[in-house]
Amino acid sequence: MGATGIALLVGCAGVQGLAESVGSPASGTELPVKTGAREVVHTALGGKTYEIRLKVKGLVRASEDDLDGVRLDGELKGKIPHYLTFEVSNTGKKKIPYAYEVFRNLTLTGTDWTRGTPVTTSGPSSCEDSAPDTLAPGDSYTTCATYMVPKGIGALAVTHTAGGGFISPADQVATWPVDGGLAAASKEMAAQGDTIAVRWDAGEEQGGVIELPATLQSVRQGSAADLAGAELDDDQRDRTPYYVTISYRNTGKTDLFPGQASSVRVLTEGAQQIGGAPAYVFGEVEVAACPAGGTGGTVPPGGTLTQCTIHLLADGDAPVAVGFEDADEGDLTGWRADVS
Predict the structure, then answer these.
(1) Distance CA 155, CA 115 (A)
(2) How far is CA 307 from the centre of its chain?
(3) What is the C-alpha to C-alpha distance for residues 248 and 264, in angstroms, rounded to an integer?
(4) If DSSP codes are grouped into helix, strand and coil, which group holds residue 262?
(5) The pLDDT value given to residue 94
(6) Closest to 114 (Cα-Cα) out of 221, 6, 18
(7) What is the pLDDT of residue 215?
């Protein structure tokens, strides 16, 4: 990772446990994750929702050779297993089918902002999944889940999300941070106000991928009233808008199209990447705190443009950093966010 680089998040697939008893991680380092129970909503694959209480009980970074006897895909070899122990209680009035799917809504995010890869094992392991097929109202189970994290990368947080998806806001975010993880994740990012190089694909006729000096000018918290009259989905109306302003300088040899807004991400305490858009995308609405300048015409060589994007965050989440998705590399170049 470069001085301001952070890896792009990878989506986690749903997984079903294969073992029949909860493993007790016998080797490794207990990480200082915040424990405790949260009332959350479990969204099943079919879209139905269930009320549950989710309690994180512990997180262990295992030794590198802990899964030596387990079959692993080639891309997982060399990664470090992390064992998450958690308890699920059905607090609703409906039986939960396929109760092991709760694992699908959980992520372990590394300090490089990459999601750990969830795995199940068919061989011996110190972490075995004991989730039942169904969970009746009032019943609970405790299980252990395995995530593979690149060597040398620390743990940022355990997060449960309901609804939403990659670079889109979740309806609900619950986070159990790892002590020191946030400081480690943002340590090598640029400070707000610094100018760094981002890679932008200007298109073949405009020179292909070029480096643009970019400066994060501000990150401001708005209110729902700012977007009164905007074209929003019902769930979006309950989210908090944040306004991100970035300026760019065209170092290319041809005019530059101002389409950089689609590459801007807000990185959150809940380990989310939230994409944004200029105000005009939400209909004929004017947002004084986020003017629509820099979205039309082109920028000549040597010229500058300033763009503001609106990012909608769920309750319980807040910006930590701002990233720009670099073209052709799959990385985010980022700044620490100083929210005003």
Answers:
(1) 10
(2) 23
(3) 12
(4) helix
(5) 95
(6) 6
(7) 97
